[in-house]
Amino acid sequence: MGAISFKIEKSTAASGGRAGLLHTPSGVIRTPAFVPVGTKANVKGVLPEQLRALGAEVVLANTYHLYLQPGEKIVEQAGGLAKFMSWNGPTITDSGGFQVFSLGAAFGKTISKFTKGEVTEKQDQIAVYDESVASQHGQLAVIDDEGVSFTSHLDGSLHRFTPERSVEIQHALGADIFFAFDECTSPTEPYEYQREAMERTHRWAERSLKANRQNIDANKRQALFGVVQGGRHEDLRRESAREIASLGFDGIGIGGSFSKEDMKGALAAAVRELPEELPRHFLGIGEPGDILEGIANGMDLFDCVAPTRIGRHGSIYTRHGIIHLTGEKYRSDFTSLSECSDVVRPTSDVGRTTSYMGGEFSLAYVAHLIRSKEMLGSMVCSVHNIGFILDLVKGARQAILDGRFDEYRAEFVRDYYHD
Question: Which end of the chain is more exposed for a tag (fewer CB within 10 A), N or C?
Fold first, then answer.
């Protein structure tokens, strides 16, 4: 028997959405579920008990960052990731594969997981270490068939990740679920390179599985997910999904990057090739509409840094879209923050999202904190945003169980993306 088990409670008839129970050694995750990202074993500005109060059941940490600081051995000596960060519940670690993207193709460019419109050929560029940009992810990433060589964003020292090393590090971190090492490509890469990277990811997936199976103790405690790649191309996504699904992973991640316009087609093409009984994680997805699209296509888990990232800059989710508290009109807007958190309707939990921390603060007060660069402002916005997304997904789960997901989604999209 594996480290996890997954049971689908109900599926939607009109689409592929499903509600399930994912049992892990550290507790149950009710899916679909949003996974707050604690990159360095902390969700920025949010205490573990606050996450629990908001309804989070699982958190995700970053293998690359924890490897560099404090080092996986320190986390292992602490008793694993959950104990190290005082989190009482399931944990997930990524593989470091996304850093291949952010250190390499995306370094020094305004490229993100998504691009809009037509893709263009990338400019050849090697990023070298420079202290003036040392706060960024890194300054050099060179990919070969064996792995990735990269420099630390902390001091420029040279490091090497291979599938085997990534698995070894993640065994030490001890999360309930971890991911096979993969290559996350830029959405601007041409088709030929997307295929090359996908095939390399498949080879790395086999090596990750082999390395994992050699650690019998870890196999009992940790589940390994493979990652589907293929960029924005439906044929590559289908091919990758078939290959990853055939290898015997405990679950499947949909990784990589997309054209915004092509996400739906690429995702649907991949999902059709995946076995129903395995849990599915849509990596790096946090935009409300994209989460609902993922749920409609049968995805179970989602993670993203966006709620805390935009929160630190004074932007918050509301029922009617994102608002930026740095705007002039919010200087004297005395609407309470809790009035902006009505996601799940109807529900007895309205206002719960921010009542744990600052729900009755006015927008004017939080705007003042942000403008004054007071730490509390970023914290309040981050808590609000995480709660908003958790409530959105919680509402979607309940809507699936109640047989009204399509209506729930349509209502939210109508209000959130109104003109």
Answer: C
